[in-house]
Amino acid sequence: MEGLEEKLKGLSIARRSQPEEHTYLLDVALQPAGLLAVSCSNRTVHLHDKDTLRLLGEYQGHSRPLCGVVFSHHSSDVLYSGSADGTVRGWDVRRPGTAAVQVFQSDPAHSFCSVDLSCSDGLLCAGTEQVNDEDSFLVFWDVRKPGSGLLGVYSESHSDDITQVCFHPRDKDRLASGSTDGLVNVFDLSRGAEEEALLATCNSDSSAGSVCWSGPDYTQLLCLSHDEGLHLWDLGQLDTEEPLTIFSSPDARGLALLARGGGVDYLVGGRWLEEAQKLLVVGGENSGDLHLMECDDGGLRLLRSLKGGHASTVRCFLWDAAGEALVTGGEDAQLLLWKPGGEELTSGKKESMKSQSALKVKSRPHKKHGYQRERKAARGDGEETSKH
Questions:
Q1: CB atoms within 10 A of CB 97
Q2: Cβ burial 159-194 (10 Å sphere, 16+ → b, else e)
Q3: Nearest C-alpha neighbor of 181 from the set 362, 373, 361, 386
Q4: Which one of 18, 172, 239, 258 is CB 3.0 to 4.6 Å from 120, fit for a cystine?
């Protein structure tokens, strides 16, 4: 960990990019060959050079807010984006600005609020918003058979917006999903039918916002809730009587993490750093300051604070292990590249780019406690996890 800590301590701004239009930067994805994809609140996808942040082009075609971007793992030419318009679109990164080369759809009533691609590039999954006040769906397509229609649908495991679908980094059949119903589900898709495929259900006791695979061999799950709760579970304990919870905090804002004794205003997300074998959690303050933290069974520990970069809330980040760099994007419309010893080549910190006009965000506002009370009660008060 010492090597990583030294790298983080040396981070400073190396590059800064801002679009001409005032827009929130919602999600960022990395292509190892040298590209960054950024989903924006104006419903476009921007393509950048990962080392210079130079804007290479943008893709248009979605008619409603975007819910995520993901590169193909084995074909460096394909990028996918999901949207509340009910489509997942595939783009050719060799031709920025062109129309989508693939369009995946399901039922016309489906509005997507999460998307991911399996590590084998074989399976694409999208999670829907709540339909008919009670149902939400996990929708699957076989990417290798474009135009073949839906591969399948899971409909029983969540009852509200599915805010995150996250495939396992190594197991093509393992999928985690999180929802505003408070549940985080883990599936083994090789088992076929939904009831048999459901391996575990973890209860976040809140509205689950993001899910991240972590830990050695990726046997752990990190869940961050919309009200800044944090839960780390060990799925390696599923077949034992040991508790799954490694660490849990109902509100990370109440933890005294910073040098001055205060806490973060919000959590951006988490990322397992394979080389360091550590779980990195990024939090922030409304001023734009960022705080890089390690998370384990001892809780959260501050590693480094980054100041002087963003002017408002940060919405997304990624760690580029090969380039030893951090990329961040936020509501000030700025995309920043942080590197050890980086010296910014542009002018100083930009003023906030928040527009007075209404900016379109990721999707409709999520309910803080939208899960059904009777379903929670059926699992037992205080029962955080049920095993299947």
A1: 11
A2: bbbbbbbbbbbebbbbbbbbbbbbbbbbbbbeeeeb
A3: 373
A4: 172
On the CB side of 339, how many CA atoms lie within 13 Å of its CA? 18
Q: How many CB atoms lie within 10 A of CB 362?
A: 20
Residues in the chain: 388
> DSSP of 124-153, one letter per residue?
EEEEEPPBTTTB--EEEEETTSTTS---EE
Distances (CA, A) of 213 to 100, 141, 166, 359: 29, 22, 8, 31
**Of 209, 121, 223, whose CA–CA distance to 164 is shortest?**
209
Cα separations (Å) of 263 from 254, 259, 291, 328? 6, 9, 10, 20
Does pLDDT of 381 surpass 50? no
Cα 43 to the chain's mean position, in Å? 17
Nearest one of 49, 113, 40 to 329, comparing CA atoms: 40
CA distance 38 to 43: 11
Average pLDDT over residues 228-240: 94
Give the CA distances from residue 252 to residues 121, 204, 299, in Å, rounded to whole numbers and listed in that order: 35, 13, 10
Q: To which CATH superfamily is domain 24-256+346-378 assigned? A: YVTN repeat-like/Quinoprotein amine dehydrogenase (2.130.10.10)
Tell me the domain boundaries of the chain: 24-256+346-378
**Token reading at 106:** 């399901």
Question: Which residues does residue 17 pair with via DSSP β-bridges, in sequence order?
Answer: 335
Question: How many whole angstroms separate alpha carbon 274 and alpha carbon 293?
Answer: 16
What pLDDT band is residue 378 in, cutting at 50, 70 and 90? very low
Distances (CA, A) of 103 to 20, 76, 86, 106, 340: 28, 18, 10, 10, 40
Q: Give 246's contacts (C-beta < 8 A, 6+ positions apart).
A: 220, 232, 233, 234, 296, 297
Whether the predicted pLDDT of 352 surpasses 80: no
Distances (CA, A) of 233 to 201, 273, 299, 309, 385: 11, 17, 12, 32, 9
Residue type, 182: G
pTM of model > 0.85: yes
